[in-house]
Specification:
This protein is of the alpha/beta class and 403 residues long. Helices cover 43% and strands 13% of the residues. A hairpin with a 2-residue loop joins strand 10 and strand 11. Bound molecules: pyridoxal-5'-phosphate.
Length: 403
């Protein structure tokens, strides 16, 4: 209730009544502390000293943009991802745009992608001058590579694809690289949700020309702010991204192309390198343990986990379940009444967003599966600081729910 409304009521009602009106949460308070979708306060307790040491180091260095800390983080990130090159930038959105531009996307060219993702996936395509061109997803929510193959077979002029490793699952990298070879496809893997995921032991980012990461705080490898990176095995592509992120400068004050200002700060790079990246493996293991506990414990007929794709070694950015769309609102209310922070990823398909309404967007197939997931998906809390008792509380709340 806004404060102004409160004070109006407080002024006209007798004191005892006021108390109840002013503190509705006292009457409906959940029995235990809330279970958050993300717990940044607990994370801070663990990382504080490493973050503060990083801030001190950068402060004392007197160098704040594109210096040694960015270079060191880029090396560490490339090594841990199994790629030769990493280029830090300002966001995951920019990482996709930079990679598409570096690969030579031309204005008006179609880029195959998924309608079920963060809007940024398609926004980056549009910003790079491309036309988002949608195929449907499978039961796990991942781009249907069979439909991709069908389109490429019919339309040899299509040269670009931005597949998304959604929810932390790895797409079928063997199928993806086969398509890339066969159709000379240029592929930017959107790995914003899937850092560290593998397909049959093979790391994501190894099937495409480049991979885009986001360090938005909720991502598995998050910064204390915005950030992103392009990863690639191609030194020339990385060099182009380095120019493009810095106004298109090839040397100081020399501009042969039009770039962006999309630089990663020294501060974020130092924090990512010293406080976050060294903990990523442990954080990911905890996410996987929680996912296993959910998969074992969830038994409601009315709440089904979206299936994880076969052969994906997933990093569980989210834990998506599906409920009948007519009861989703009730299910979310049921969970929130028990103090459980659930979310929806994503309630509206990208191709239905108004921002794209007047642009030449293209649908190759009716996105029936994407629509089904958008209408019924709910994300259960999954983050490294959930303990087993909390996970069990979530399971009990789900299992107690009936349509
Ligand atoms: C978060 C996200 C992005 C965008 O990353 P930002 O750093 O927020 O720009 C792109 N794609 C997917 C799948 C994402 O989850």
């Amino acid at each position: 209730m806004p404060t102004s409304e409160r004070s109006v009521i407080a002024g006209v009602l007798p004191p005892r009544v006021q108390l109840h009106i002013l503190r509705p949460s006292r009457m409906t308070a959940p029995p235990s502390p809330p279970i958050l979708a993300n717990d940044f306060v607990q994370m801070w307790q663990e990382i504080e000293s490493d973050v503060l040491a990083s801030v001190r180091e950068v402060g004392e260095s007197g160098w704040y943009i594109l210096g040694q800390r960015v270079a060191a983080f880029e090396s560490a990130l490339a090594r841990s991802s199994g790629r030769a090159q990493a280029v830090g930038c300002a966001s995951g959105l920019d990482a996709i745009e930079l990679a598409l531009r570096a690969l030579g996307l031309q204005a008006g060219e179609r880029v195959l992608t998924t309608p079920l993702s963060a809007f940024a996936t398609s926004l980056a395509i549009v910003r790079a001058g491309g036309v988002p061109s949608f195929v449907d997803v499978d039961a796990s929510g991942l781009l249907r590579l069979d439909q991709l193959e069908d389109v490429l077979g019919r339309e040899p002029s299509v040269r670009f694809c931005v597949p998304v490793h959604l929810y932390g699952h790895a797409l079928d990298l063997e199928h993806l690289s086969a398509l890339r070879e066969r159709f000379s496809l240029r592929v930017v893997e959107d790995a914003a949700q899937a850092v560290g995921a593998r397909f049959r032991g093979r790391p994501i980012g190894s099937a495409g020309d480049a991979m885009a990461l986001s360090f938005y705080p909720t991502k598995n490898l998050g910064a204390l702010g915005d950030g992103g990176a392009v990863l690639s095995d191609h030194a020339d592509l990385a060099a182009t991204c380095r120019r493009l992120r810095d106004y298109g400068q090839s040397a100081k004050y020399v501009h042969d192309e039009l770039g962006l200002n999309s630089r990663l700060d020294e501060l974020h790079a130092a924090i990512l390198e010293k406080a976050m990246l060294p903990r990523l493996r442990e954080w990911t293991e905890r996410r996987c343990e929680i996912a296993r506990r959910y998969l074992f414990g969830l038994q409601s007929r009315d709440v089904t986990p979206l299936p994880a794709p076969a052969s994906s070694e997933s990093v569980w950015h989210l834990f998506p379940v599906w409920v009948d769309p007519t009861s989703r609102t009730d299910f979310i209310a049921h969970m929130r009444a028990r103090g459980i922070g659930v979310g929806v990823h994503y309630p509206q398909l990208i191709n239905d967003q108004r921002a794209l309404a007047d642009l030449p967007v293209h649908n190759w197939f009716e996105p029936a599966q994407a629509r089904r997931i958008a209408a019924g998906e709910v994300s259960l809390p999954i983050h490294p600081y959930l303990d087993d008792l909390e996970v069990d509380r979530v399971i009990a709340a789900v299992n107690a729910w009936r349509v």
